[in-house]
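In response to the reviewer comment on reproducibility (Comment 2.3), we provide here a single inverse folding case reported in full, input and output, so that an independent group could reproduce the run without further information from us. The structure tokens appear first.
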């Protein structure tokens, strides 16, 4: 997901839609003005905040819930209504900003080819662009959206508008102005730190998978345990258990391998490779042919119904079907 990009988009939204007046015709209070930009940036991170808090609490469906249209519409409306009541800023503006920011977050995730099931809980059908349309690395993400923000600033200047005009018009105390800037900068810094931390853990799990390829199963399991020991749920749900499952399978520990594959899929049914791995595990097991097919079929059905946009799907299904057909 474009973690840094969400911050820049939130800042642009705050600048472009700064409140002009209260619902009763008076200017917003200085406190409402001071909190405006940080609040808009924070709202643009609502799906990730829900995912992070829920995952840290052990709720495996937090990511599905947080990035669903239900949260975008209902949650965004609730945030906008409460925000308007607290500040007096027109509700129509805040409803549009809140709902639009959350929907925009989900849209940017999709453009980065992040697997999402926006119609959950009614459907777990995955939407994905297949190929990322936005940069995925930390620096590339930051530079790309910084460039877009610079173009936005240039457009504002060309049309006679500046950044922070509302703050200037309200003649806020200097300390409040710097509080606004500091809060916005802190949110962006937090996004950068979270992205960097996530990338570091993902690289460790990539290294663990290479260890499995080299036969270093114990070391791979140790890395998985180390990544899984932190309180912050920073990696994709099920990713650690997928590494464990591969290591246990290579070690011949069928019981723990099967449990880890099932756990990985249960933690994130939107993960294409988790569904592929467990279907292939059952297809390649030494169980009787009819039992292998019975165990693999629910995951094959999920692949056929949820992941139809994946280019790799036909070849994978063909490979699994051929394996299931053997020895029948």
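Designed residues, in position order:
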């Amino acid at each position: 997901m474009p973690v840094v990009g969400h911050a820049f988009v939130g800042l642009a939204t705050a600048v472009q839609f700064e409140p002009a007046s209260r619902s009763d015709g008076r200017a917003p209070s200085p406190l409402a003005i001071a909190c405006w930009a940080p609040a808009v940036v924070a709202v643009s991170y609502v799906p990730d905040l829900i995912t992070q808090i829920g995952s840290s609490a052990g709720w495996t469906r937090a990511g599905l819930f947080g990035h669903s249209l239900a949260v975008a519409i209902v949650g965004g409306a609730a945030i906008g209504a409460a925000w308007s009541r607290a500040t007096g800023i027109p509700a129509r503006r805040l409803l549009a900003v809140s709902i639009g920011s959350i929907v925009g977050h989900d849209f940017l995730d999709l453009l980065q080819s992040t697997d999402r099931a926006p119609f959950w809980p009614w459907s777990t059908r995955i939407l994905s662009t297949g190929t990322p349309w936005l940069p995925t690395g930390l620096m590339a993400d930051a530079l790309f959206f910084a460039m877009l923000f610079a173009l936005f600033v240039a457009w504002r200047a060309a049309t006679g508008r500046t950044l922070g005009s509302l703050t200037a018009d309200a003649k806020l105390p200097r300390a409040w102005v710097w509080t606004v800037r500091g809060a916005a900068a802190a949110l962006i810094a937090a996004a950068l730190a979270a992205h960097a931390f996530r990338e570091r853990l993902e690289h460790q799990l990539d290294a663990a998978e290479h260890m499995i390829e080299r036969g270093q199963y114990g070391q791979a399991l140790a890395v998985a345990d180390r990544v899984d020991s932190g309180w912050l749920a920073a990696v994709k749900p099920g990713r650690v258990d997928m590494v464990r499952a591969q290591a246990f399978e290579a070690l011949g520990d069928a019981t723990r391998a099967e449990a880890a594959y099932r756990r990985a899929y249960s933690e994130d049914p939107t993960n294409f490779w988790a569904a592929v791995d467990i279907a292939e595990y059952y297809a390649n097991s030494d169980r009787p042919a009819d039992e292998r097919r019975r165990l693999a079929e629910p995951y094959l059905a999920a692949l056929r119904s949820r992941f139809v946009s994946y280019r790799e799907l036909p070849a994978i299904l063909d490979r699994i079907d051929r394996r299931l057909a053997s020895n029948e």
